[in-house]
Structure formats: structure tokens, C-alpha cells
Amino acid sequence: MRKPIIVGNWKMNKTIADTKAFVAAVDSACNDNADWGIATPYLALQAAKEGAKNLIIAAENCHFKDSGAYTGEISVEMLKEIGIEWVILGHSERRQYFGETDETVNAKMLQVLHNDMTPIVCVGETLEEYEAGTTKDVVKTQTVAAFKDVCPNCAGRVVIAYEPVWAIGTGKTATNEIAQDVCAYIRSVVAELYGQEVADKVRIQYGGSVKPEGLKELLEQPDIDGALVGGASLVEDSYKAMIAAL
Ligand code: PEP
């Protein structure tokens, strides 16, 4: 039985003050029907962590090296120092705008897992790839690359977010059937790599214009164990509506 996990991805939104107010308003509303979380910009992580009793607080990125001459970067040690144990990796915006590759995503996966933190690793096809019918090839390549050299013990605690790029921030969502089909396929890829027992442990989220209204039905899909939510996670009332929906 996999516990659903819903994580808001705030991207480059909200100040520290905004974050404190959001956490104060939402944290106590969280229920046990899912793991609830938010990924905030680095600067707001500490304030979010200090205010959160229930919410998982995640970073949106990290570096793959321990320390060194990497101007502008943040290490996992720095995140752990303020109590952060979750990190989103390989979001399509990072792949698209910041040169993230399958190789850097893999290096970050290894760094995060070796430091006993939990990655939420994003995979998903672009609109072009979707229209060309290559969705499964793309997510397979990204998934296999992300898990390179990850040991079976670590693999089971990874969260995968399937996010079709064409559905992120566009208001277009994959139908539940399409999302289920791709998430089941991703699980089969993990099973090929590690066996069914590990694959059955891995939680797979769908992300792409998720709204509170459709959340319950989305999570009724057998291979969809949660959601990575952008826009709808920024508004206190809609986050609370997601909590109330489960
Ligand atoms: C995201 O940022 O990962 C995302 C899915 O955004 P949105 O829900 O706004 O499409």
C-alpha cells in the first residue's frame, strides 16, 4: 500500500514572509490521507521548515558535488543543516532553461540518496515528443538514466514525478487514462531495473495543471500515487481544497 504524496512546486514564487503566512495557514490543515509538502525557493526553506509540523519541505534543486567552486549553487549538506530532506530533481524547467541533463540529474540522484535524502525526480515528454508518439521512449530513457548506479535499497524510496511538459502551467492536463498508462509504464521500467518488489514501493506522481477538483479521481488510478502541483499549490485555499479532497 503506497501512501499518496502531494507536493507543491512553488518555482520562483513567494517571499519568506509569504511562505511563513502560507505555512501558518495550511500546515495544521494537513491530514493523514497523504503526505503533503511544498518545495520552496532556497531562501524560504528555513522559514518554511521552522513553521511546518506536518508539511514536507523540499528544495527545488541541489548540486551534485559536496562543496567547491560552483558559484550560485547549494549543496545537500547546506540543505541538511536546515533540516531539508527532500529535493525535486530534473524538473523540466531546469532541463529546459538551466541545462540540466540526464547525466546531471543522475549525479544529483546519487548525491541526494547517498546523503539519506529523498529525491522527487521528474520525467516527461515535450509536446513535440508527445505528438510524435514517443512519450514512452522518452520517459524510459529519462528514468533509466536517472537510476543509473542507484542501488536497489535506495531505489525503493525514490519518488518519480511524471510531468508531460505540455501540461505544465498550460491548463492542459493529460487524461487520467493517459497519465495512468504512462505511470504504469514507468513502474514497469523500474521493475525491469530492480524487480517488481522495488517497483511496487516507488511512488509515482502525476504533474501538469493538477487542480483540487480532479485530484481524487487522479489518485484512484492504480499507478498514480500522488501529484506534483505548481500553480494550484501557491494559493492557500486551493492547497486546502486539495487536502479536503482526499
Ligand atoms: C510543476 O511545476 O511541476 C507543475 C506541474 O506546474 P502546474 O501544476 O502549474 O502545471
How is this structure best summarized?
It is found in: Cytoplasm. The chain is of the alpha/beta class and 246 residues long. The chain contains twelve helices and eight strands.
Question: What descriptive keywords fit this protein?
Answer:
alpha/beta, TIM Barrel, 8-stranded parallel beta barrel, 8 strands, 45% helix, 15% strand, globular
Word description of this protein:
Involved in the gluconeogenesis. Catalyzes stereospecifically the conversion of dihydroxyacetone phosphate (DHAP) to D-glyceraldehyde-3-phosphate (G3P). Belongs to the triosephosphate isomerase family. Pathway: Carbohydrate biosynthesis; gluconeogenesis; Carbohydrate degradation; glycolysis; D-glyceraldehyde 3-phosphate from glycerone phosphate: step 1/1. This protein has a single domain (5-245), classed as TIM Barrel. The chain is 45% helix and 15% strand. The protein contains twelve helices and eight strands. The longest helix is centred in the last third of the chain and has 19 residues, at 176-194. It is globular. The model has no long low-confidence stretch (mean pLDDT 97). The structure holds phosphoenolpyruvate. Phosphoenolpyruvate binds at residues 9, 11, 163, 168-169, 207-210, 228-231.
